[in-house]
Design a protein that fits this description.
Layout lengths: L4 H10 L9 H4 L7 E4 L6 H10 L3 E5 L7 H14 L3 E4 L6 H12 L11
Helix pairs in contact: 3-4
Length: 119
């Protein structure tokens, strides 16, 4: 079930998406979809990734992949191996303004006037 159908409709309009789904569980059943990007709340990443893999979808997921137990990590690894599909994890914190600013400073190799970073 979509928690915010108005947001879904607006996002679909802005991105020119022709089709939406009421839930991940419905989306993964669509045989025309080959891959999914999991960008849900962190505690759901493992469950959603396993669900998508079980339906034959390649998966890209935002970090963290696991939120909770090592058993969840084992379940995820087992499902990835069993599926033979592509599983990719993405770091999205880089997009935060303060982290991007530090990246730019680091690439200039200077923290302050007269200081040079060594690689």
């Amino acid at each position: 079930m979509i928690f915010f159908p108005d947001r879904c409709a607006e996002l679909a309009k802005v991105t020119r998406c022709k089709k939406t789904y009421p839930s991940l569980e419905e989306l993964v059943k669509d045989r025309n979809i080959e891959a999914v990007m999991i960008s849900t709340d962190a505690p759901s990443h493992t469950r959603h990734t396993i669900e998508a893999l079980k339906y034959g979808k390649h998966v890209a997921v935002n970090v963290p992949a696991i939120w909770g137990s090592l058993e969840d990590a084992d379940k995820l690894l087992e499902e990835v191996k069993k599926s033979g599909l592509k599983y990719m994890m993405f770091e999205t914190s880089f997009l935060y303004e303060d982290l991007y600013a530090m990246y730019k400073i680091y690439n200039c190799r200077r923290l302050w006037k007269g200081h040079v970073l060594r690689r």
